[in-house]
Structure formats: C-alpha cells, structure tokens
Write a structure and sequence with these properties.
Layout: E1 4-10, H1 14-26, E2 32-35, E3 40-42, H2 47-51, E4 61-63, H3 64-67, E5 73-75, E6 79-83, E7 88-91, E8 96-104, E9 109-110, H4 118-121, E10 127-128, H5 134-143, E11 147-152, H6 163-178, E12 184-189, H7 199-211, E13 215-217, E14 220-226, E15 231-236, E16 254-255, E17 260-264, E18 267-270, E19 274-275, H8 278-281, E20 311-313, H9 326-346, E21 358-365, E22 368-375, E23 379-380, H10 384-387, H11 397-413
Parallel strand pairs: 1-2, 1-8, 2-5, 8-20, 10-18, 11-12, 11-18, 12-13
Antiparallel strand pairs: 3-4, 6-7, 7-8, 9-19, 14-15, 15-17, 16-17, 21-22, 22-23
C-alpha cells in the first residue's frame, strides 16, 4: 500500500465519509484514503430515541467497510501525530503517511475524568448518558420510581447541544405513562444562561418546560458526582450574584460554600465533558491558546486551516462558533470539497462559504418535535421550502416522523453516499 495519497482524510465518521463520497462523485480519478481504526459506524442522532425506548439500537450501526466509498482506500489505523510542515502524519501501526491535501475530521472524545466521580457514577444503576450507552438510559428511565430526575451538561463544547434536554422531555412522557410523574421532580440544570440560544425556539421550549412542570436551573455547572450519597454538585457560574437556596425547597438542594449547590438525585442523565482527540490537541493544527485551545484551528467560512493552506477541517473537531451536529457537516462538506477541487486545479480557494448552518431536531415528547435550524450568531436559518408547510418553531408530529423515519433514511442512503 502506498504511503502517499493525494487526499488523506482523518476520520470515518459522518464528516469523513461524506467528504470522501462527494469528492469521488465529482472526480473518480482522485487518490483518496480514509484513516479510521473503528470497524463500526453509528448513526448517533437516533440515540435519543433509543434512550427513550422508541428506536432499535442495532439499527443505528453499520459496518464501516460497507460505507467506505468505492475507490477510496481505508487505512484501518489510528493517527498518533501530525507534521503539517512536512505534509505528513504518523499512525499507530501503518507508519508515516504523506499527502497533498489533508482533511481532519476525527470527531471528538469524551473526558470521563472531567467531572469528579463521573466515571464511578456511570457504573451505578442511577446515572446514565445517551452519549455513551442509550440502552442503559432506557433501563434507568424504566426503573425510576420517583424523586429527583436530574438532566445536565458540562461547560465544555458538546456534540448535539440539544441532546441533554431532548431525552428529558421524552423521560417526562415516559414517567407519566409509568404513573410515577406525580412522585417526581424533573430538573434541567445547565451552565448556560438560557434554555436555547435562538429566541424563536427558546420561546417554544420555555412553554414546553412550563407545561411539563420542569425545574430550569441556569448557571449550574456540574463539577462532582458523589454516587455513594447520590448527590451531584454544581458550581454557580453567575459571578455577579451570589447563589441563594430557599429553605424547604422541593429539590432538597443545599449549599456547600458560597458557590456550590448540592442536589440529591434518584436518576441522573448527563452529557460527559468533551474535547478534541489528544492527537489533535497536542498538534500544531490545534489552537494553542484562547477559548478554543485544543480544537482544530480553521477559518470559519472556508474551513481551511489558518496556518497550513493544504489542510482543511470540519465536523465536531473544528473550532467553529456553531452547534456540533451532522446537519452542520452536511453544509460543511461541500465547502471543503469545492475548495480542495479548486486548489488542485488552480491553487486558489473555491467560492463556497460555510455560514454556520446547524440544526437541532428538538424532540419535546413522543410524537412531538421542534426543528431548530440556525447559523452563526444564533440567527434563525429555517429551510424556506419546509417553512412553507410547517412552522418549525412549533411542536409538530410531522417533524417527529421526519426525525424517526426520514432522517435515518436520508443519512444512510443520501448523506453517506455524497448525494446531499
């Protein structure tokens, strides 16, 4: 096998497969290789539904080999380091590989040590995460008999920012069906200041929270889980005001010091802290300082690396001020493809720009969904064609059908084949 490739793609997730497929569809003569160690490829967008008992986990998996586009070489190996000054990278067992153009899209990694006690808590029957094991989430929901059901997320960037609250809305419905909701307090604790960053969708979600009698706790950053006492500790992040807990509050919260809130739980669901993979964080391709430190350093419009002109990045690893979703990748991949093809021909970038589009299918209950579409600066960016028929800021049954049936079909049959 050749150690040099015209285009080398790091990562066989949504971004890597889509980019490779679109490149091959445009020019079948290209020499392309994908590096990814995994034999499995998952459609993770359906894991919310798996966690609520309404989708089969097995149907979210395909063999990676079946998805690698025809004519693209698959290097089943892991990257250990980058040497972009010499157009080279190192792998665990395949040696050094060189390239003309590099596409970096290995996704992100979970940091189970990023919250004290998280790793141990996940071994208990009361703490779960759709990000890690959605089938366990469903077991925890089914076994819940009452008390505090706490849903939270970390201060780090996460993939699919709406996921920690989507499973909460479905769990609330499940609790009602199981007859335990009257004995429960459902809590959404977020380090952020709002339920959602785009006003039109935040208005609807606020109505959902009020209708379901969910406690919204803003400025709550999880910092510790004491699984023996079944308590989660939150740091109060609103610096300008002190944290006040009312006596006799229904959640049993307590203060530990001036800015730490301790909340008991009978069920806890959370997104784990997340970061770029270590081999990206430790490389010259990552931001070295600032709020995006460790994430891939690319131009937010062209997706070209800000220091190495023949390197591009997209997907969850990229430091882009928008939500990390598969829908975002669908708009990013054509920009990378156009730019690489144009550079091969003329050493110049193409005319396409990525405007920050992302989408969050916010499931608000069984049979209900809000389709939140937006771009940079939290500007609503709803599909004009779809908006002729459906107000996507409202809860819709038709959007639920899209989520459960339409989007999985489009993912496997269109996106993965570079056709959309």
């Amino acid at each position: 096998m050749s150690n040099h490739h015209q285009i080398l793609i790091v990562g066989g997730g949504t971004a890597g497969i889509m980019t490779a497929a679109q490149l091959r569809n445009r020019d079948a003569s290209l020499d392309i290789a994908i590096i990814d160690p995994s034999k499995d490829h998952y459609y993770q967008a359906a894991w919310t539904l798996v966690g609520a008992g309404t989708y089969n986990y097995a149907n979210t998996r395909r063999d990676m080999a079946s998805l690698i586009p025809s004519g693209v070489k698959w290097v089943q190996d892991g990257v250990t380091s980058f040497d972009p000054a010499n157009n080279s990278l190192s792998t665990k067992s395949s040696g050094d590989l060189t390239y003309d153009y590099l596409v970096v899209c290995p996704g992100l990694q979970y940091d189970l040590d990023g919250i004290e006690g998280l790793r141990e808590a996940l071994d208990t029957d009361f703490v779960c995460s759709n990000y890690l094991d959605p089938e366990k989430t469903w077991r925890v929901i089914q076994n819940f008999k009452g008390g505090n059901a706490v849903f939270t997320q970390p201060t780090t960037p996460i993939k699919c920012g709406g996921a920690p609250q989507k499973i909460m809305y479905l769990a609330d419905d499940a609790f009602r069906k199981q007859g335990v909701r009257d004995n429960a307090e459902v809590i959404f604790a977020t380090p952020g200041s709002v339920i959602f960053g785009v006003k039109d969708f935040a208005k609807t979600l606020t109505q959902v929270i009020n209708r379901k009698n969910i406690h919204l706790k803003t400025f709550y950053a999880p910092v510790k889980i004491d699984s023996k006492k079944k308590e989660v500790h939150f740091q109060w992040t609103k610096q300008e005001t002190g944290c006040v807990i009312q006596n006799g509050n229904p959640l049993g919260e307590d203060l530990a010091g001036e800015t730490t809130v301790v909340m008991p739980y009978d069920m806890l669901h959370l997104a784990p802290p997340q970061s770029a993979p270590d081999f990206v964080k430790a490389s010259p391709l990552a931001h070295q300082e600032g709020p995006s430190k460790g994430w891939l350093n690319v131009d937010k419009y062209t997706l070209q690396h800000n220091e190495f002109a023949n390197v591009f990045g997209l997907g969850d690893v990229a430091a882009l001020p928008t939500a990390k979703t598969g829908a975002a990748v669908r708009k990013q991949a054509p920009v990378v493809v156009e730019n690489i093809l144009t550079m091969i021909k003329s050493q110049a970038l193409g005319g396409k720009k990525y405007e920050g589009y992302s989408s969050c299918p916010l499931v608000t209950g069984y049979g209900k969904m809000v389709l939140a579409e937006f771009k940079y600066d939290n500007v609503r960016d709803s599909d004009p064609f779809l908006s002729k028929f459906v107000d996507t800021t409202k809860e819709n049954w038709s959007m639920w059908i899209l989520k459960k049936y339409g989007l999985p079909y489009l993912y496997w049959n269109k996106m993965m084949k570079g056709k959309m």
